[in-house]
Amino acid sequence: MARTWGNIFFSLLDYKTEKFVIAKNKKVGVLFRLFQLGVIGYLIGWVFLWKKGYQETEEAIQSSVITKLKGVDLTNSSQFGLQLWGAEDYVIPPQGERIFFVVTNYIVTPNQRLGYCPEVRDRGCWTMHFIVVYSGVKTGRCINDTGTCEIHAWCPVEHGQAPSEPLLSKAENFTIFVKNFIKFPKFSFSKSNVLPTANKTYLKTCRYDKDHHPYCPIFLVRDVINWTGYSFQDLAKKGGSVGVGIEWNCDLDKDESQCNPEYSFTRLDSSINSQNSVTSGYNFRFARYYNDAAGQTYRNLFKVYGIWFDILVNGKAGRFSIIPTVINIGSGLALMGAGVFVCDMILLYMMSKSSFYRETKFETQIKPTASALKTHSPERKPQGTVSFRTQHATEKQKNISPVSTLKTQRKQ
């Protein structure tokens, strides 16, 4: 037992070195070359050309977006008559932020003042039982004349439904000017989507078009919605949410003029199969307050429907660096080694002559003895002497008997 453990221990001290064997096997040879070509093609085509594996990249883009809308529309309602809507009226907030709302439809409840008024039917109108409802607070008093509960709220309460047609129907012709400033801090690279041009009237007349004006930063509301797969009428009545994507993919090994944005458009609040869902659409309420001559505070309550725009900026920049280049080349060489391993397994264990290849490849050598070293070392001979074997071979080639040759040498 001790001897067995000793053998195991001493076997750990054995050193293994590679032995190269040239196997004249065309099947394995073709397979190995195909594997090498595949690795080289992957490394050059996919890693370096397509994925630009020789570049150091950065995706932590710093971005600032400023928006400006232009356009007017005229509405005619029973409460207010003719009313002109400018950008200061239909854009919320008006500061020109990355996220903004454009009013397309609305319900207005004019001349509300704080007081007591009827709300809902008298079911649940308990005396002195205050219950908060969306319009105000129930007082607990029943109003028999109207069959409703009394509430403390801004009166009269909101009523009515959104018009079947959007009141701001000309909103589809409004323009959106998007200014986007980006920076990749790792490379100290900055740029804007407003390209420099010597034509001073270009930005006043151009409209974004993917084919003819791909770098114009001015968009028509109608076009933006159409590019999402919907129409203006689909969103204008009950509202919706639209995302405008700005994608920066910059190869900084090329000229700066080659780094330009690409735009994309999508509807965020609904899919095509659920456009009538309760999750689609967008609206909210706001009020405008004023005082009459007697100092009484009134307000006009607006429930507005419209389109919520969200400008989404993403980007990636890359520049040549020796570190990722060396790492990717090393990965390719490692894959080459995997090919050697696979072909070895096939040759040594899966071929019909695998046992022959194994015997040829794997060989165990013990520590050589002194006699073995002497046998394998060349004999040192004095200068000017020739061994009998060498001379015998030479004379034999000349058809001369070695005995006669020796006799001749003795006579001399």
- N/C terminus separation: 71 Å
CATH-level-2 architecture of the largest domain:
Sandwich
* Model regions low in confidence, pLDDT < 50 over at least 5 residues: 380-412
Helix segment count? 11
Query: Given this structure, which CATH class of the largest domain is correct?
Result: Mainly Beta
Q: How many structural units, i.e. domains? A: 2
Q: Hey, roughly how much beta strand do the residues contain?
A: 25-35%
Number of strands: 15
Structural class: alpha+beta
Q: How do the helices and strands follow one another from N- to C-terminus?
A: HHEEEEHEEEEEEHEHHEEEEHHHHH
Considering DSSP H and I runs of 4 or more, what fraction of the residues is helical?
25-40%
Spatial extent as radius of gyration: 45 Å
Mean pLDDT: 83
Name the CATH superfamily classification of the largest domain: atp-gated p2x4 ion channel domain
Q: Tell the overall outline.
A: elongated
* Major β-sheet profile: 9 strands, mixed
Do you know the CATH topology of the largest domain? atp-gated p2x4 ion channel fold
Describe, in plain words, how this protein is organized in 3D.
The chain has 412 residues and is α+β, with helices and mostly antiparallel strands. The protein folds into 2 domains: 13-54 and 321-361, Orthogonal Bundle (Helix Hairpins), CATH 1.10.287.940; 62-320, Sandwich (atp-gated p2x4 ion channel fold), CATH 2.60.490.10. The chain is built from 11 helices and 15 strands. The protein has helices at residues 2-11, 26-50, 87-90, 202-205, 221-226, 232-236, 322-349, 354-361, 370-376, 388-397, 402-411; strands spanning 55-58, 62-70, 73-77, 81-85, 91-92, 99-121, 136-143, 148-155, 175-184, 189-192, 218-220, 240-251, 261-267, 283-291, 297-320. The strands form 3 sheets. Strands 1, 5, 6, 7, 8, 12, 13, 14 and 15 form a 9-stranded mixed β-sheet that branches. Strands 2, 9, 10 and 11 form a 4-stranded antiparallel β-sheet that branches. A hairpin with a 6-residue loop joins strand 5 and strand 6. Helix 2 (26-50) runs antiparallel to helix 7 and helix 7 (322-349) crosses helix 8. The longest helix is centred in the last third of the chain and has 28 residues, at 322-349. The two termini are 71 Å apart. Residues 380-412 have low confidence and may be disordered. The chain crosses the membrane at residues 30-50, 329-351. This is P2X purinoceptor.
